[in-house]
Specification:
By secondary structure, this protein is mainly alpha-helical. The N terminus is likely disordered. It folds into two domains: 87 residues, no CATH class; 441 residues, Amino acid/polyamine transporter I (Up-down Bundle), CATH 1.20.1740. It is built from 21 helices and eight strands. Helices cover 63% and strands 9% of the residues. The radius of gyration is 24 Å and the shape is globular.
Length: 540
């Protein structure tokens, strides 16, 4: 793929300590490898291959040069056959590079707002600077949990597990770094989301990239470009809401449910559509009430499930407290000098950064749609609250998953491809009952993600087709139908295409954020000045 960086994860199945590293030399990926599952294991095989006289191994268009471990008494013999296993081709899509460069730019431009205003963010979300009479539909806390419900979920449970199993423990460090930088992107997009939102006669709020791209860029003389960007974003968001925000979620929830011992072999395990009907009914009950109804559900589910998940992780870490120094040593050593399974330094970097981007969606723009509904007259106040989102999602929840997997050494299984199963096994190593808790967590996280993404898709839908009652109901009916389809279908390329649509949202969004960054700085200065002069009073 044009503009992509890639490396290959390889393991060697043979005498211990023979291979030190593999170097990926000549790809040939364009014609010889399918590119339809970039975020999953897309090539797995075990072959007995001869080592050439020049120390290389060639397999189906891939050439590996071998760095033999000189300390080993067992050496490679030219022409002799050895067994190698290619576990994944790892890509760093151009969109991830854009998200990371954007996050780095915003962090520097706003002088590390992600660090400087962290305590203020906690105070604001606790209601210390809130006025319940300000315009909007939900509180700061409800807006945060609604947006979090769209990101905290399967990416934290399954995605991190795969990243660690392929990229090694070192991927954790880059994942955390990407999460910290992403806090600045969230601050910018959610500040703009509130600044350019619209509030109709009924008090219903509409906001997000569609509005700050079209209206914000128009103010700067780029009206046509802004409308093109906004329309493109809305179309991609609708597609993403039906696929990755809906069908993929319910499909994974059903697979987890069907895998429980008391469900296996029953009639429902082979009739996913029934599970889909039940989930669709539950989703319908919530989304018919709009963002207020969604927020009332997410502000209970998200803190409860995150709390249980993090608590279980802390218990396991506490039970293995003597292993913690070893774990952190492995993380830092692996981040810069990974073992053969990671496919080199670039491979570890890719796994950490890619997982953080797929998990917290910082820079994608979706979360600003939920944050726009907050009750506030100061746009920067919600931007400051929003920077907590990548911290909770990536720095806390994803890191807890990684630490448990590394402590229990479950990441050393080169054949691990099912992220949920890997995480479940890691937790169950110390807490046998947790596999049942994790099953409930997967279903609840999937449910909360679905209802939040239904709101994102609806706001994009009404931006394109108007906010009439008919347009509103049409989208919600379609969304619920896709829930049933997703539970029963084998998704494959459908969700891969949907994932691509979600990340296509980042292209116009990041460009717009950079162009509108001066306005965000102005809003931040105005908000901080109000606090400094006492116009906004802190409630004790």
């Amino acid at each position: 793929m044009l503009g992509d960086q890639f490396s290959v994860a390889v393991t060697y199945e043979g005498p211990a300590e023979v291979v030190r590293t593999f170097a990926f030399k000549t790809p040939g990926i364009e014609t010889q490898t399918p590119l339809d599952q970039l975020d999953r294991v897309i090539l797995t095989y075990t072959r007995t291959l001869p080592v050439g006289t020049d120390g290389t191994v060639v397999a189906d268009g891939f050439t590996f040069s071998i760095d033999r471990n000189d300390a080993s008494s067992y050496g490679f013999a030219a022409g002799e056959a050895y067994t190698f296993k290619v576990t994944e081709i790892m890509f760093l899509p151009i969109v991830i590079i854009i998200l990371l460069l954007g996050a780095l730019f915003f962090t520097i431009y706003f002088r590390f707002v992600n660090v400087r205003k962290f305590k203020l963010a906690i105070d604001v979300v606790r209601g210390k600077y809130s006025d319940p009479n300000e315009e909007g539909e939900v509180s700061h806390f409800q807006a945060l949990t609604a947006a979090l419900s769209g990101t905290v979920g399967l990416g934290n449970i399954a995605g991190v597990a795969i990243a660690i199993s392929i990229g090694g423990a070192g991927a954790t460090l880059w994942m955390v770094l990407a999460g910290l930088l992403g806090m600045s992107s969230k601050f910018v997009e959610c500040t703009l989301g509130v600044k350019y939102r619209t509030i109709d006669a009924r008090g219903e709020v509409s906001g997000g990239p569609m509005y700050y791209l079209s209206r914000g860029l128009a103010k700067r003389g780029w009206g046509v470009l802004g409308r093109i960007f906004a329309g493109f974003f809305a179309i991609m968001c609708i597609g993403g809401s039906f696929g990755g925000g809906n069908m993929f979620q319910v499909n994974q929830a059903f697979q987890q449910f069907a895998g429980l011992e008391f469900v296996q072999g029953s009639w429902i395990s082979s009739n996913g559509w029934m599970f889909g009907v039940i989930m669709a009914a539950l989703v319908a009950v919530v989304i018919l009430g709009g963002i207020r109804s969604i927020a009332k559900v997410t502000d209970k589910i998200v803190p409860f499930m995150c709390g249980i998940y993090v608590l279980a992780a802390l218990v396991i870490i506490g039970m293995n407290i003597t292993e913690v120094p070893r774990v952190f040593a492995e993380i830092f050593a692996g981040a810069f000098a990974p073992t053969a399974i990671a496919g080199g330094f670039v491979g570890v970097l890719i796994q950490g950064f890619r997982r953080a981007a797929f998990s917290n969606e910082a820079g994608v723009g979706s979360a600003s749609i939920a944050h726009s509904a907050v009750k506030t007259d100061s746009p920067a106040s919600e931007g400051i609250v929003a920077l907590l989102e990548p911290f909770i999602d990536t720095v806390v929840v994803c890191t807890m998953t990684a630490l448990v997997i590394i402590i229990t050494d479950n990441h050393l299984d080169p054949g691990a491809t099912d992220g949920v199963a890997l995480t479940s096994r890691a937790f169950s190593t110390e807490l046998p009952f947790f596999k049942y808790v994790l099953s409930v967590a997967v279903i609840l996280f999937a449910f909360s993600t679905m209802i939040t993404w239904s709101y994102y898709g609806l706001k994009s839908w009404t931006y394109l087709f108007g906010g009439s009652r008919a347009a509103d109901i049409t989208y919600k009916v379609l969304f619920c139908l896709f829930v049933v389809v997703g539970a029963a279908a084998s998704l494959g390329k459908v969700t891969d295409f949907s994932d691509a649509m979600i990340f296509a949202m980042a292209f116009p969004n990041v460009i717009g954020l950079v162009l509108l960054a001066p306005e965000v700085r102005e809003e931040l200065n105005k908000y901080l000045e109000k606090i400094r002069t006492g116009k906004i009073i802190r409630v004790s």
